[in-house]
Design brief:
Elements (H helix, E strand, L loop, with lengths): L24 E5 L3 E6 L4 E7 L14 E7 L2 E7 L20 E9 L4 E9 L8 E8 L35
Parallel strand pairs: 3-4
Antiparallel strand pairs: 1-2, 2-3, 4-5, 5-6, 6-7, 7-8
Length: 172
């Protein structure tokens, strides 16, 4: 199953197209950090600006991302992944903990398009680095960021049916 269907983080670079690429990505920026929020299940990545990588980052779903600007491009360098994600949801391409992803975010077409080029390097899974690109269009109108919770096992799987829990009264 796709990461989203099983309520798991998409990983990187899958974060860029999590949910089929049809949902918005919100970008919140401060001097110290950029937060990327994918509307699909409200997945969140943190990019720490102008700092080096940790000596030994703890393996995680989205790794440790550090960023810097080179001219008008945001460069995001990510290491420290666990090996629980796939690089994509179409072919379930696995990776190792040696995964290293470099993304280059650049506004184009007078700010109407965001192009993200990325390079994947993983000596534990591939013979050579490879690259790809994804483009986003600026929304024509503001889209509110709404909660989109994920209900695990909400589909029939191997003959079993799991009910989605429904609260009978508010928690608060």
């Amino acid at each position: 199953y796709a990461a989203r269907a099983s309520c798991k983080p998409g990983g990187v670079p899958q974060f860029l197209v999590y949910g089929g690429g049809f949902q918005p990505i919100y970008i919140v920026q401060s001097a110290e950090k950029i937060v990327l929020i994918n509307h699909g299940d409200n997945q969140v990545r943190h990019v720490y600006m102008n700092v080096p990588h940790s000596q030994h980052p703890a393996p995680s779903w989205y790794g440790e991302s550090v960023g810097r600007y080179e001219g008008n491009e945001l460069i995001v360098d990510t290491i420290g992944f666990n090996d629980k994600t796939f690089l994509d949801d179409s072919y379930n391409v696995p990776h190792s903990t040696e995964l290293h992803v470099v993304e280059r975010f650049k506004l184009m077409d007078e700010g109407k398009t965001l192009q993200v080029s990325f390079t994947v390097d993983d000596p534990g899974a591939f013979n050579a680095p490879w690259s790809a690109m994804v483009r986003y269009r600026r929304a024509t109108a503001a889209q509110p960021l709404t909660e989109e919770p994920c209900a695990e096992q909400s589909v029939v799987h191997l003959g079993e049916f799991f009910q989605i829990p429904i609260a009978t009264k508010p928690d608060f």
